[in-house]
Specification:
This protein has helices at 6-10, 59-77, 80-83; strands at residues 3-5, 24-29, 33-40, 86-98, 106-118, 121-130, 133-146. By secondary structure, it is an alpha+beta fold. The protein has a single domain, classed as Hotdog Thioesterase (Thiol Ester Dehydrase, Chain A), CATH 3.10.129.10. A 7-stranded antiparallel beta sheet has the order 1-2-3-5-6-7-4. The mean pLDDT is 94.
């Protein structure tokens, strides 16, 4: 399967609205790369207070969307028993750069690439684009842990 919709993503991630940020995942190359999509809307929960009159998607939520896209890519590619009753926690963020503000009524595309894995620890890199223009990029690590 080369594309996952929001309902399919919900079978892979524990996130739910309003914190489930990604709307789809496509161009999936098993455990290697994918493109996540966040449809940033005028009624997105973060727009109301960040910043009234000139809304911007917070950079920390762009990082969260990177992480969700990477977690969905990984969960989609591994055996279900490996992530069942588990959570993926962000461990580190390196070299995060926010180049342009992400404003409502846009399609934020997150190009995600898995760089390496070592046991339950994964390292990724990503670029966030709107209409082909780079908005942000980062490198991050995450780990799979047991639910408590």
């Amino acid at each position: 399967m080369d594309k996952l919709n929001k309902d399919q993503i919900k079978t892979l991630l524990p996130h739910r609205e309003p914190m489930l940020l990604i709307d789809e995942l496509y161009n999936i190359k098993k455990l290697t790369s994918a493109v996540g999509v966040v449809n940033v809307k005028k009624d997105s929960f973060f727009v109301q207070g960040h910043f009234p009159g000139q809304p911007v998607m917070p950079g920390v939520l762009i990082i969260e969307a990177f992480g969700q896209s990477a977690a969905a890519l990984t969960a989609h590619g591994i055996d279900k028993s490996t992530y069942e009753n588990k959570l993926v926690f962000l461990m580190s963020v390196e070299k995060a750069r926010f180049r342009n503000p992400v404003i409502p009524d846009c399609k934020l595309e997150l190009n995600i690439e898995a760089l390496r894995s070592h046991g339950k620890v994964w390292k990724y890199k990503g670029e966030a684009l709107v209409g082909g223009q780079k908005m942000a990029d980062a490198i991050w690590s995450a780990t799979i842990v047991d639910k408590k």
